[in-house]
Amino acid sequence: MTSTASTTAGDPRPAPRDPSAHPVGADGVLAAPVALAALDATVDVPGSKSLTNRYLVLAAIAEAPGVVRGALASSDTLRMAEALTALGAPVDRDGSDWSVTPFPAAPPSAGTSAAVPAAVHCGLAGTVMRFLPPVAALLGRPVRFDGEPPARVRPMGPVLRALEALGVRVEDEGRGTLPFTVTGPPRLRGGHVDVDASGSSQFVSGLLLAAARFEDGLELRHTGPTLPSLPHIEMTVAVLREAGVDVDASRPGIWRVAPGPVRGRDLRVEPDLSNAAPFLCAALVAGGTVRVPGWPERSTQPGMLLPELLTAMGGVVERDGEVLAVTGTGAVHGIDVDLHEAGELAPTIAALATLADSPTRLRGIAHIRGHETDRLLALATEITRLGGRAEQTSDGLVITPAPLHGARFETYHDHRMATAGALIGLRVPGVDVVDVATTGKTLPDFVGMWLGMLGTAAGLGTGAGLGTGTGTGTTPGAPTDG
Ligand SMILES: O=C(O)C1=C[C@@H](OP(=O)(O)O)[C@@H](O)[C@H](O)C1
Ligand SMILES: C=C(OP(=O)(O)O)C(=O)O
């Protein structure tokens, strides 16, 4: 597939492509299919990354073996399962039911063979690098953490300094990033700790998740000027309570976790609503209807904001029992919104905004510069490369309508950049999404699901159908296991 070559020097547009070819070339580039007709699709979205990784942690520190049902199999969750297994809480995967044997009640004493250093590879997963150091601190042995090169610039300092304040030995040479080694004391007392979580809610979630196993529990106070992703902290509180842990969250910015047993017996994961976002947005871009079954009535996932956001941007959102349906006409409106509660949705909403008939302002998301990549910079750069107008602000983006053209869309190891590129490509012929496999971080079958959603409505902007979709408009949605 000649998906990346420019036609003339200085022309950012890719050369014409063979419309009968599979849209992912040997170079890993997705020639984003254009929607040639209105959609009529039902998309089964696999389990939530955030819930899968929280439940795995809770099951690992529980008093008895447990099962996480409906687990997402993606690189972020497989990293978590591998790490827990390496640390002494084996995770046994049987389809989407993952059985967890918890850590032994007593930590291995220094000098035994079990006291040799263990290693955790975090990949690029924020949940692994932020949730596991407090768990490792319970084990009384050195645990070395590292990750992929882009993970080494993601902020970790507040978690590491909080652990030090709790008596844990941390060797990070003061960098506040991966790699580092954490060695817990023989008895981790816990107590009170101050944390500036303006860089990531995961600093709070990680400490709270392990805190019931600290001898005195934990009182954590957030000290920073802003607090992103509060729904994700509420998710942490909710899963702890589901596991029988006593959590007081009655004072803003302060959480108290009582010491006590953790019950992780039978935990069920909801579909990942943030991963549903590009599919639901596709209905606005292409017109037609996209349905997502299993939409929870209540949830702490930030994707619960999607109905409101997509209505404001021109969609019609309806619920029929557990099915959420979004219908679009092809008209997309701009929006002015503070996304600090749902920064995870920003790349998708930004992509949708590039196709809108009025400007969009996304605010309150300075912290997403510390996500998989600097997402404000990445989005502004790639939208501009497509001919769009996107400006970074101190805490977000301003996107102004402009005619777009095809070009190479860089993804920077960021799954949500890849899905953002595919979304724009539904309307803009010739968008080449680089390294589409990066979607494997949370959605390994993204391309199959995307083609399934499009069915015979897909083409490369040439008027010819791709012929690679299922033609039924219904995606299998099953994650690849392994
Ligand atoms: O706790 C979690 O599962 C998450 C919290 C959020 O992190 P930030 O607070 O760093 O945005 C979110 O963006 C991330 O995708 C998942
Ligand atoms: C920010 C994200 O991931 P992580 O859990 O690695 O922070 C994300 O999935 O959008």
TrEMBL record:
Chain segments annotated as transmembrane: none
Active site: 344
CDD domains recorded: EPSP_synthase
SUPFAM superfamilies on file: EPT/RTPC-like
Record's subcellular location: Cytoplasm
Cellular component, GO, one term: cytoplasm
The name this protein goes by in its record: 3-phosphoshikimate 1-carboxyvinyltransferase
Record organism: Actinotalea ferrariae CF5-4
Record gene name: aroA
